[in-house]
Design brief:
Helix content: 55-70%
Strand content: 5-15%
Distance between the termini: 91 Å
Number of strands: 3
Structural class: alpha+beta
Order of helices and strands: HHHEEHE
Radius of gyration: 32 Å
Shape: rod-shaped
Length: 178
């Protein structure tokens, strides 16, 4: 009878400890892994008297906890890699939009309004290429028919050089159409 009482005490203590561990988990992303780990520990603790009856409960408990720990760790690592990948895409897009807005402000200082902007960043968050469609701020241009290639205006050349110097990229990677 004292064995059953001891088993109930042990199970209650493990249950209480695991409940506290689950409730104080730092991030929500890790809670499901901690919950899985807690459930495995509780099942093993519940089955411990049966395993002791067959003689090798300690070995089995050690092997199961070791394997579940490494599986949980691998799952956490894979989830972290996925989160890093998704966050990286988010940040690259955010920085591209910020650079597009910054290029628009620079174009305004040259008297142009940016109609459309496109910036491409590489993995190191460096500007890979930039394309701007600009128009003079005070005029509206209506084109009927086809337009041949006009020589580039000096203001556009100056804007391209300013952007190239500011973002430290070759001027050939910057396309500006007006």
């Amino acid at each position: 009878m004292s064995g059953i009482v001891d088993w109930v005490k042990d199970y209650s203590m493990v249950f209480l400890l695991m409940t506290v561990l689950t409730s104080v988990a730092a991030k929500k992303e890790y809670r499901r892994y901690i919950q899985l780990f807690v459930e495995i520990i509780l099942v093993i603790t519940l089955m411990d008297p049966l395993l002791q009856a067959f003689g090798k409960s300690g070995d089995l408990f050690e092997k199961i906890s070791y394997d579940s720990f490494w599986q949980g760790l691998n799952g956490i690592r894979m989830d972290q890699e996925k989160m890093d990948f998704l966050e990286e895409d988010y940040y690259i897009g955010y920085y591209e939009r910020a650079i597009e807005a910054d290029a628009g402000l620079l174009a305004e200082s040259f008297g142009y309004t940016v109609i459309e902007a496109s910036v491409t960043l590489n993995e190191a968050y460096e500007v890979e290429s930039m394309a701007l469609a600009v128009a003079k701020s005070d005029t509206r241009q209506v084109i009927v028919g086809t337009v041949g290639r006009k020589p580039e205006k000096p203001e556009i050349t100056a804007l391209r050089e300013k952007l190239a110097a500011y973002y430290k990229i070759p001027a050939e990677r910057i396309s500006i159409t007006d």
